[in-house]
Write a structure and sequence with these properties.
five-stranded mixed beta sheet; alpha/beta; globular; 10 helices; four-stranded mixed beta sheet; 50% helix
Amino acid sequence: MKKRFVLMALFIVLIAGLCLVFRVDQGLAASEGKLITLNMALFHGPATDSTIVWKNYEKKFEEVTKGRVRLKVFPSGSLVKGTAQLDGVQRSITDLAFSWPSYHGQTYPISDMCITPGIFRDIKGAREAYENGIKDILEEEYAAAGLDNVQVIAMLQFGGRYICSNKKVRVPNDLNGLKFKSTGAAEVELLRLCGVGTTGMNLGEVYEALQRNVIDGAPATLGNMHNEKWGEVAKYFVDEPLFGQSAMALIGSRKSLSKIPEDLKGTVIELLKGALYRIELVRLENDDYVRNTWLPMKGVQIYKPTFEEKALWKEKTTQVFQKWLARSGDRGKRALAIAQKYNAEN
């Protein structure tokens, strides 16, 4: 009987010990953040420059954080479509989104600033202006509209936005009667001033729409021409950034970001920004290749407007700029002052 009692006591002590080890192990796992996964929504396809960089950073997150924070990337709108990314972050449907702010330019004018003509001199001037105050004003604009869970982590410049089309275009009147894919408020305004009918569509639908002549053209970055293969079906390209400088915003859910262990928050933000800088370097390298080699190889006719033709475009783009300034209010004036500081002509 006594032996049986001793065995029972030892058994109880063993079970208690195992429970204690399990609880300690759970506590360590929680403190180390082993189960933190950040889902990121992209609208670019899996073969694009930016998506490839983000996919590579999935592994880098694992290595740098020693598995405590994981990044999981969802290309092609597979998690949240491009037009719904802002709402998706606000509702924490996705933790992060690599988004195009100008989708919502009519509602949030600061988000349309990048593609408003006449504000930014070039990629460098736009990037410096966004990082030195404009992205904070954009976040302020979101919060004022009730998007208080949206944090603008960083901005990335994707380069100028140009005209690509199925028909030869040199001056604004050449656009009259054509139909273009367009989304941002500023570019829609410019196209309509030139007599263009505009329609919205997803990025992945543009190639077929150009091929079937459903549309005659679209505002495009050099990346669009190459990565989305628009240069295979749109044979005319106006080499002048008439639609400003295209920007991408890396936005995050405050609720999701607050779950990152304190000792890793700075590391995570630096990793995210590092990916953006890498994307920008890749894009700059590829833009030279696309302009000088790939487009000519595909038979695209590249046209550089003359001084007189630029003046005709300037008449239209100035009107667009003035309308943007009027609807953007005090935030627009503050953001413009920052832009002017970093975009003075050399």
